[in-house]
Amino acid sequence: MFKAIQCADHASLRTLAKTFIGTRNDPAALLCLDHGFSPPPKLLNLSFVEIQASLSLYLDYVRLLSKLRRDESLAEGSNRQRLFGFQVLGEDRYLAPRHTILHEKLAGRFGSGGESMGGYTCGPDELRRGIIQLILSRTSDHAVDQDGTCRDIHGFSPCLRLLIEKRCDSPNGQGSCTFQHVQPEQLTIDWYHSRLHLILLQFQILNSARYDELDVKKYVLAYSVINAYGYSLNVKLLAWYIVLSTSSTFTGARIVRES
What we know:
With about 260 residues, the protein is mainly α.
């Protein structure tokens, strides 16, 4: 794990995290995921299966952060002590060693009153407040990054230029185009359900992270249709009809968009 962190091997860290989650080693899983999702993985040109795997692991990460926030134990060997590296001095006194993220948070927020040669000394209430602030800021920052990553690919929407005109200006159908490149025959009800599942999974992540920005709440399935390439409304509706009316599983299945 530490070798993967040192080498910034994000893929290996995310794989290791799954193992630690399976063995309920929350501190090790959190450490892997914190480094494994920094920076957040790129979702462009990935299949829905790959995107779902990435978002599902991201949800595990946010839930583990939430679990750590609720766990108030500061005892030696506790999850908080293992992750943040503070020392238990006894008599309700704790030391956050220098050159740690916890020391930076406590000394920066509460001043230098608790400074000593070894770091920052404080009581349990001050330590808990510093840890909670660290967890909340970490959760918020990663939620913003994750939301931006999903927005970069326009809500997992299909490329309307490729769908209608059978071509895309981007070289080889990739590059600058951030929409999903799929053929009309691939846009089945199963495809639609997979896309809906990804959007709901994204909402689960944001809800677990308590990310309540107003523009996120206004997120809708037709997000990409509203902004795609400046096509006329009729062309957009035609493309959306193709997406939602094609079915390989249910004969004659239709989803009607009301005007």
